[in-house]
Design a protein that fits this description.
Order of helices and strands: HHHH
Structural class: mainly alpha
Number of strands: 0
Largest sheet: none
Shape: rod-shaped
Number of helices: 4
Helix content: over 70%
Strand content: under 5%
Distance between the termini: 143 Å
């Protein structure tokens, strides 16, 4: 095979037709922009998850009672991000709700034992307790305390009234039986 020498053609100014400009630079720029956006979004989502976990940890360690066992209303610790606060607050609200329910149920049991077969006395005493509790609670939980107290009062008053009716029926039966004999 014969080796040919490179033959160059002289460059002349002549029309070369329609030339499309390259958009490779634009595409490369858009790709880099998209990459940066994706990285920032991923870093943001990762930090949101970290803050959510921090809020859950704060809520898990949050105590609603003081050392003597009484409900102590406190606010969230300072310095929490809005994401952490938003994550922690519903959990803390559930803790306060459970604590209020436990206290009101225990007080209802105690008052029910004191006012056996006296639904009006129970209702009066428990209503005073609910009003005092609602007055002493944090404003955020005041409506919860009154609603919860009304529900517990209704349940216990109805049960005491039913017990009273049953006891009256039993006494009437005994009196009727004694009158016949």
């Amino acid at each position: 095979m014969a080796i040919k020498r490179l033959q160059s053609q002289p460059v002349f100014n002549k029309p070369i037709g329609i030339v499309q400009p390259s958009n490779a630079g634009v595409r490369a720029g858009q790709t880099i922009e998209q990459l940066g956006t994706n990285m920032m979004q991923n870093f943001f989502e990762k930090e949101v998850n970290v803050q959510k976990q921090k809020g859950a940890d704060v809520a898990r360690n949050f105590r609603t009672r003081d050392p003597s066992g009484k409900i102590e209303y406190r606010s969230l610790p300072e310095g929490l991000s809005k994401v952490a606060q938003r994550e922690a607050q519903p959990i803390i609200d559930k803790k306060y709700s459970a604590a209020l329910l436990r206290d009101m149920t225990n007080e209802a049991k105690r008052l029910r034992a004191d006012h056996d077969k006296d639904p009006d006395g129970f209702d009066k005493a428990f209503s005073a307790y609910v009003n005092k509790t609602a007055e002493l609670t944090d404003p955020r939980y005041k409506a919860l305390a009154t609603d919860m107290g009304a529900e517990i009062a209704g349940e216990n008053t109805a049960a005491i009234y039913a017990d009273k009716v049953d006891a009256d029926d039993a006494q009437d039966y005994k009196n009727m039986y004694d009158a016949i004999i």
